[in-house]
Write a structure and sequence with these properties.
The chain is about 80% helix and about 0% strand. It is mainly alpha-helical. It has one domain. The radius of gyration is 16 Å and the shape is elongated.
Length: about 80
């Protein structure tokens, strides 16, 4: 792999993860879940789970996008 493809991989992973995590955070906020609540109550745990799921889904979407771009270039 060359440096350009490694940079694209890193940036797309970071953008996908952060975008998904932020989306999970704001969905949690809309549902009344606060990841910054004092202690580890149900609200905080639910918010943390949504942020984690959002980050993971965003990362997977970024990787699928990259795979699709690579397939386009090869064909």
């Amino acid at each position: 792999m060359n440096q350009k493809s490694l940079l694209l991989e890193g940036l797309s992973d970071a953008i996908g993860f952060m975008g998904g995590a932020l989306l999970g955070y704001w969905i949690g906020r809309l549902l009344g879940l606060d990841i910054f609540a004092e202690g580890y109550g149900n609200s905080a745990i639910g918010g943390i789970v949504l942020v984690g799921l959002g980050g993971g889904l965003g990362l997977q979407l970024a990787r699928r996008w990259r795979k699709r771009q690579k397939a386009k270039e090869e064909s």
